[in-house]
């Protein structure tokens, strides 16, 4: 057999005995623009051309990378800017440069069946429950979207990234000046809890609540990772220093004992919450920088690189 690569990014397995490919493995050819691992362990990855690929890791062998599938019915969007999975169903929210939030069911695949118009392109999305999402827009306004419309404006400007803990009805927003605020959520509205802080002097680029909700991990544009106490906003340690470029994503392990961080510096770090000085460093993982990392289990990761690569990692913690 012979394997060829097409301009679409697909791998075609050819055989002299057949006029058509024996097998076509769907890949990504354009730059990766977003990724999310949903609660049911489906990894959605979008590329610059508006296409979405899905990898289903819901199997006994979490390190085995499954064959990807094309997601959607071909009605692709323009450049995708953000992705988030819903909490209670298989719905996925996509933000795009058409200044809309696209809500797509896993088995539906129609990107344009349910859309919500926004002031500008969504750049960060967090699920709150059902089809309700908190969204940071390109104009740095933070809003809540529910029932097919913008239900509340939370912050008018300077917001950069958003994260949620749906089970505890908590929402965190990071800002340009390195500050963050925590909000309590009720239905389709949010109000400040009074907990805020400034763990860094640079723009907040990533946020993640621990499974218990007791710790909020923050990452900034300079590569700094700071865990903070959600009860009073104080920093737990300033020693989580390894990265040298923007933090692109943060992910807690299912047991809340470890935090994984990814960065444009091409590295991944796994921090220990109970032993603050202990870190596992995974260097030079993706040649163009790491765009996303998530825990598949307590000791395994999946990462998505701007080089269009998908990798899994077994950790020795």
Automatic annotation (TrEMBL):
Organism encoding this protein: Spiromyces aspiralis
Protein name: WD40 repeat-like protein
